[in-house]
Automatic annotation (TrEMBL):
PROSITE patterns named among the record's database cross-references: HIS_KIN
Main location: membrane
Protein name as catalogued: histidine kinase
GO cellular component term, pick one: plasma membrane
Entry's transmembrane regions: 12-29, 35-55
Cell compartment(s), UniProt: Cell membrane
A GO biological-process term: cellular response to phosphate starvation
Catalytic reaction(s) noted: ATP + protein L-histidine = ADP + protein N-phospho-L-histidine
Lineage: Bacteria, Bacillati, Bacillota, Bacilli, Bacillales
Enzyme class: transferase
Organism: Paenibacillus crassostreae
Keyword Transmembrane: yes
Length: 335
């Protein structure tokens, strides 16, 4: 540390030495100035300057020496200044508050997990009477009554299904099983579920599958397609919904095209946002704003890109672009 101290003040030390040499040189060259007197003054000045350096060294390096000692001893409290009772009280209060916040956070997390499990259990329990209700509706002879009851049953079924998948979305990675899936089977199962609703609204389907299989998770892909078909049926008048597949640059493309009311251009960038319904028909109480949001979240985990093109009053076209097989395998580790 002495060396560092001298190095940091070398300019002042050199200046002092040069002044002494200059003073003695002038006395040597000028006979009118007594050399011995000048040497005596230089000697005293050097002693005083040396003592000054020593004193300043002790004063200026005291704090840094204490830092070095604390670092060597790894004892942060050995050089700490005595704390007042107020400081100790503040520290204890902060520590207790941190512990309290940790306990509250842990309790809230456990409560949320418990509520989630209870809700999932409730949804599964409700499915049993809902299935029985569907069987009872099938036995009704009055077709008009049967159609209306089936429509209301379907609304409840879809809302429960949406809630179930909403609770599972955060843990979707633990629920994936990647395999080759026949698109025809998934599409026909979903259309069959919506059959009574489609008959009621006079909606048909035109299916053209140039590509028959994709690599994905059957359950979550069915959920995504269910949201797209539900929206297409909900917002369409009597018409055909066109479903097709094609291959573009090694990507499988699934296209769902309807002739419904369409989506306003200002809404198209927001339809996948959580809770967003519409700015065009804002009083639509049937919309929850969750279907497309959940579909987007599930698609991201399946490496599927969802794109929409729509014109207000003309219809909408939703496109699912599946990743290349090697890209999917590289990310997910599927074989």
């Amino acid at each position: 540390m002495i060396k560092q101290y001298i190095v940091e003040r070398r300019s002042w030390i050199i200046l002092f030495i040069l002044l002494q040499f200059l003073l003695n040189f002038i006395a040597y060259m000028d006979s009118a100035i007594p050399v011995m007197s000048i040497l005596y003054v230089s000697f005293l000045s050097t002693i005083i300057f040396t003592f000054f350096l020593i004193i300043r060294y002790n004063i200026e390096t005291r704090f840094y020496r204490s830092l070095v000692e604390r670092e060597n001893n790894l004892d942060l409290t050995s050089i700490a200044t005595p704390r007042s009772p107020f400081e100790i009280l503040i520290e204890q209060s902060m520590t207790s508050q941190a512990e309290l916040l940790n306990r509250v956070a842990s309790h809230n997390l456990m409560t949320l997990e418990q509520e989630k499990d209870e809700l999932l259990s409730w949804i599964h329990e409700v499915k049993t009477p809902l299935t029985a209700m569907h069987l009872m509706i099938d036995r009704i002879d009055d077709e008009t009554m049967k159609t209306h009851l089936t429509y209301e049953w379907l609304r409840i079924h879809l809302l429960l299904d949406q809630q179930l998948h909403q609770r599972r979305i955060p843990f979707i990675e633990n629920d994936l099983f990647i395999e080759n899936i026949a698109l025809k089977d998934i599409l026909f199962n979903e259309i069959k579920t919506l059959q009574s609703w489609c008959i009621q609204k006079g909606i048909g389907f035109d299916i053209q599958l140039d590509v028959q299989e994709v690599l994905s998770d059957a359950k979550w892909l069915a959920f995504i397609i269910r949201q797209l078909l539900t929206n297409a049926v909900k917002y369409s008048e009597p018409s055909d919904i066109i479903i097709s597949t094609e291959q573009r640059m090694d990507h499988t493309i699934l296209i769902v095209k309807d002739a419904g009311r369409g989506i306003d251009l200002r809404d198209q960038s927001r339809i996948f946002d959580k809770g967003f319904t519409s700015t065009t028909i804002h009083q639509d109480n049937a919309a929850t704003g969750m279907g497309l949001y959940l579909a987007k979240k599930a698609a991201q985990s399946l490496l599927i890109n969802i794109h929409v093109e729509s014109e207000l009053g003309v219809g909408s076209t939703f496109t699912l672009t599946f990743s290349k097989r090697n890209e999917f395998v590289k990310v997910t580790g599927a074989s």
